Amino acid sequence: MNGTYRLGDVVRSEWTKFVTLRSTRLMLFAFPVTGVALGVLISFLTGANWSEASAETRATWDPTNNVLAGLIPGYLLIPLLGVLMVTSEYNHGSIRSTLAAVPRRSTVLAAKTVVIGAVAFVACEAVTFATFLVSQQVTGDAPRATLGQPGVLRALVLSGAYLALLGLFGLGLGTAVRNSGGAVAVYCAVVLVLPNLMLALPGKLWRFGPIIILANSITAVKVQPDFLSPAVGFAVMAAYAAGALAAGHLVLSRRDA
Predict the structure, then answer these.
(1) How far apart are CA 202 and CA 112, in angstroms?
(2) What is the pLDDT of residues 161-176, one digit of tens each?
(3) What residue numbers bound the domain in which 232 lies?
(4) Total structural domains in the chain?
């Protein structure tokens, strides 16, 4: 590009690299299939066992939150999508060619952020709505939710956007760690292990774990008192993603490829 590159040019280049990666295509195929299938299975089993549900369960039942448990595969697949967006280049050594063509490293990271953010947002919104709409058809005798009910549309839209933020979080970790296995290990530590360790600490800090927020605040229509509100939970995840991207930018700008 010889110094005449623009962000749009770099975004197109990153998009080309993204769609040529076999691993990304597989994950973008796997997430809809597993997400919808798991949501349908959960909804079917709920309906089949609804007659045995206790009075307390019936009183607090949240059908939207129940079927959106089908998004569980996205907890790993979408962040991994972000990780591989950058670590695949380090693994193959092609990052040197990228940085030679675009010496301004902030532009490279910005382009990757645009691609992952856009793809993850569209894919995750589509899977979220598909999981909800299809699963509602097999609920049996259990209560159903509709898009017109208070809080349902908010839960669906924020769920897809939240998963997209997890993708950006993965991109930031991948850029900072520069190794697929290492970045995934850090992600699992922050998302899965750390909240459990925080259970022993005062102040209910475990509420700030990304997956806990998603499962109990973002996907919930009836948010329980102990958990963060959807707006606060979404802001916390945005801070996680911004922090990871900032760390990635710092490493990318200061270390050799």
Answers:
(1) 38
(2) 999 999 999 999 999 9
(3) 7-254
(4) 1
Kindly state whether residue 102 falls inside one of the protein's structural domains: yes
CA dist., res. 102 & res. 66, Å (int)? 46
Is residue 167 within 8 Å of 81, Cβ to Cβ?
Answer: yes
Q: Which two tokens stand for residue 36?
A: 């919808």
Q: Is residue 78 part of a domain?
A: yes
**pLDDT tens readout for residues 67-109:** 999 999 999 999 999 999 999 999 888 899 888 888 899 999 9
| Number of other residues whose CB lies within 10 A of the CB of residue 158 | 21
With respect to residue 2, please indicate whether it lies within any of the assigned structural domains: no
Task: Provide DSSP, 188-219.
Answer: HIIIIIHHHHHTTSTT-GGGG-HHHHIIIIIS
**Distances from the Cα of 45 to the Cα of 130, 135, 197, 202, angstroms:** 18, 11, 32, 37
Residue identified by tokens 């924020």 is 158
Confirm whether 1 is domain-assigned: no
Say whether pTM exceeds 0.90.
yes
